[in-house]
Amino acid sequence: xAFGETPPNEWWTLFQNExxxxxxxxxxxxxxSLAAAxxxxxxxxxxxxxxxxxxxxxxxxxGGAGRQQMxxxxxxxxxxxxxxxYGIGADVRYTLDYTGGIARSIEQQQAQAxxxxxxxxxAWLSLTGNVAVQYFTIVFTQAQIQALEELLAExxxxxxxxxxxxxxxxxTKVDELSARAQLAQDATLLxxxxxxxxxxxxxxxxxxxxxxxxxxxxxxxxxxxSDLKLPDRLPVSLPSELVRQRPDILSAESQxxxxxxxxxxxTSNLFPQITLSGNASHQATSTGRLFDASSxxxxxxSGITAPLFDGGTLRAERRAALQAVQTNxxxxxxxxxxxxxxxxxxxxxxRHDEELLISQTExxxxxxxxxxxxxxxxxxGNVGVLNVLVAERQSLQARxxxxxAQSKRFVNTAQLLLAVGGSGLSGG
Length: 428
Known about the structure:
Blueprint: E1 2-3, H1 18-30, H2 32-52, E2 58-68, H3 72-75, E3 83-96, H4 101-167, H5 173-187, H6 190-207, E4 235-236, H7 239-245, H8 247-268, E5 273-284, E6 296-305, H9 313-379, H10 385-419
Parallel strand pairs: 1-4
Antiparallel strand pairs: 2-3, 3-5, 5-6
């Protein structure tokens, strides 16, 4: 392992597998969860742009036309004839942000946009991890099925041999039944493996954005397990780097940032709000005189709104915002601790996987030798068929165990690269 190094954003390329690279590209283009995460980020960015606009003066074009008759309620005994009026102009409104409430609301929305950016990164890393896990599961399940089919072929050969020997009076009927029972028992292991293979293929198809029946590679025989390669070097980030690059940690940090900004907004609401507004327009009773100098009208208005009695609503909202900060701070700390725990577990798993692989390899070699010896002894008449069957059973278990150990090593290596990985989709 190369401690202190950061895996590349396209971490799966360390396995040097073209099939895996192709599947990752298909997932990037077709996965719907990733598309939803992209849309959520785009929505958050547009909301940020909308919120940022509130810092500037708001200008509206206004215009109207009407016909009116005013009665005694407005003019008393003085009566005006019915008249038509026209008007066009602009209204300007500006809120003086002396308490910083608008600025903090923009900061809050910016933090939300950062959160969705990191969630997109997390969705991408999760997707690539799931694709890798399903791919390795398919490859090693194929290998287990092949090993089991080879064993079943040997079982059938044994049944034929024992049947002929029993007919010749060389062995008892018990030996023949034992051989047939071994064949039937080994055959029961095949359907669960085929189901596991189908399940992994269906899961991979969905990750690629395809229905299982639509995926062109649904029945593809992927590369042999023996052709897979582990990374030559396994980069492992230091904890200080981990905090600055893991999307789940950065997402929790963004939520904490948004919560602190919400406190500023709630605090601002406790103070008077000052607004400035003005308008300028042309008003006339005929369109021909609408833009004369005499038709110009304007006005400037300032306003202040201060909370006097609200039943404690505003202060309660501020206290709630402060509690939200505490909640998000605790969530952030918990996320950091869990990330450290995950990396520590996967580092230990990598070490134990290597130990398990060595043990399973030795068991496999021993079991093969035992089968060869049992068959030679059986041919020489020194042992019965049961000894051969037991040796073959142990050989099968050792072979399947070796494939399972190899599968776990590849899966745990992929998960370790994810746990200490880079910035995800937006960084790549």
